[in-house]
Amino acid sequence: MNSFFTYIIFIASLLAFSACNGNTSLSGEDEKDESVDNDGWLLPKNEIRDGGVGKDGIPSIDDPLFVPKEEIDFIVDDRLVVGIVIDGEVRAYPHQVLDWHEIVNDKIGDTSFVLSYCPLTGTGMAWNSEIDGIPSEFGVSGLLFRNNLILYDRETDNRWSQMFMKSVKGTMSGKEARMIDVVETKWSTWIKMFPEADILRPNSASTNGYRDYAYGKGYLTNDKDFVFPPNDIDQRLPNKERVHGIVLPSSVEDEIPVRVYSTSQFSDTVTVINENYHDYDIVFAGNKEMELAESFYANIGDSTLTFEAVQDSIPIVMKDNEGNRWDIFGRAVSGPRLGERLNSTRSFTGYWFAWADIYEVGTCIYPEVVRCGRIDTGQ
Amino acid sequence: MVRFFPNFLIILFYLSINQVTAQTCGCAGAPLLSSQTITSAAEKNLLIGVKYQYHAIDGLYNGSQKLDRESVQRNTKSSLLELHYGLTNRLTLSGTFSLISKTRTSGLQSNNPTTITTNGLGDALIMLKYVVHQNTYNSQYQLAFGTGFKAPFGDFDLTANGIQLNADMQPGTGAWDGFFWSYLSKTFAPKTSLNMFMANSYKITGEASRSDQPGDVYKFGNEFVSTLGVGNELYKKFSYTFMIRYRHTTSHKLDSRSLANTGGEWAYILPGISYKFNSRISVQLNGQFPIYQNLNGTQSTTSYAADISLFYSFNPRIIF
After folding, report:
1. A377: contact with B, CB 8 A cutoff
2. ipTM rounded to 2 decimals
3. Are strands A198-201 and A89-94 parallel, antiparallel or unpaired?
4. Nearest-by-Cβ selection for A56 from B107, B162, B212
5. How far apart are CA A233 and CA A73, in angstroms?
6. Is the pTM of this model over 0.95?
7. Residue A148 distance to chain B (closest CA, Å)
8. Cys-Cys link to B175, which of A231, B206, B280, B302 (CB 3.0-4.6 A)?
């Protein structure tokens, strides 16, 4: 038995000597000084998560392929697409593709832009990818903040928060992205509105891998299904309700006013809301059945327009007091302002839990104006 | 009888070194239970095995469909130390200690892939095995049961650039797990030295709080593994095994909520070959290749695994 214990002690010592302290090493990326408090992040670093796949572990699409809708056979009618129009050219990016790539680096005419979609927060948006005159591509950093995508740009390696729409770490920290208006709606609605639009198709030969859901079908609607638990649940709306939010300018960093419109409270007809919120004249247009929601500043030149809904004429959704008719991208399609375009708000649509978790106290749901307090579960 | 005994000794040798049992691959390819290669040790005998395993995880599947857009490759390198001590001729105490290295290379489609490697002490497995029926000439089967726990010795809060890495990149799980194990083998001496065996295990995983963030309580999925195999002498001191393994794991949970893209079922084939230098020392080489997988959602999964083991018996003798 003596020899037995000798062996045990020997082995235990060997283990203890060789590997008591775990360690991590990186290559292909600069190691950062972990001792620096918050390490230059504008976000609380302890809430940033490794998404599990690493930098560019979700491959962005950098050479997008577009086809007419007749060549698309994998998109389900009630799944959503993100649409964009630049210089009259209309393109759509199906969630079914974005689920697996999250980022598309694209260009229309002279405008280079990145269109991003975060499946965990359900948020899709686009911004100009030329920053300070420097063209760049964006990729998936592999990091998340409160479930939301953090992008990185391949020119400067800055980290960009999708829902904050700005650089949150790096040489351009704090710089806001120049947003480009996008429209999200169901595929069935989209092809009625813009039948001639080009549709993003995966570059792979087969689209079989794009028929499913990145986080399961239940993730889209199950209010208890999260990948990372939110900090706090705000019970004013169901967690997975898709809401449209406008992020308004603010001088107070911690209290960014966000106007939220919940399309579920409206009818299946087009609803238009004119309101002045935080001294901004805003018009919102939405349709519950189509899962359509858009917002614009109501001012154009020195005029403040007043809008009302137009039914059964999509993509035309509203008309104004001057006799103009406007489509969902805010383009005047008839009337004295034909060819003009409304100014876009800094806005996008996504799951309510994400809005509440990211913007916290600032979120105020229409029609509330003075009683915008969150209702926490404290979970 | 003269011809019988050499064959029977070979069979017993199989029983002592070749009984690969089950797989605990719930932590991205870091095996512990699967490394159990010893069914029992004779009373007061100490068996030591060292094993090095390489686990390549770079096949991307959605359900049972292979996808062609891999952008991430992973591998896990495990160095395992097995100790088996015969408390009695029927009761064996086993301990398995591990050093784990995990590598994740992402951005394979780009010109600048990023690689993160974690190294550290892995979790440890402590197990008690009881041989209900020992293989004898007159009754040629062995039946054993075991139970034990996995102790969270390993690191589970390693970071990269100060940001905690995902659970599947940690050398350890941080959780206490419990498991049950059974083993049945059958021999056919003196007609043949062929040995057939079946092993089953079920692991109930525990939870681990990975950080001070609310809800950051991770639980790997419970796991059932069943292995069916045969072994026989091949040529002189060489012998072989061939196994088919089925594995099922439930989804992992975070904050008690099931996580998409975790869990599923797998089937593998595992060919192996061993060489016995003498009565004390043997070496074994095994491969593991998936033949079927049906995963929950989309996951990277094992494309192959290979291991090499060296065993040393301090007091070699046959139990019966």
Report:
1. no
2. 0.85
3. parallel
4. B107
5. 38
6. no
7. 15
8. B206
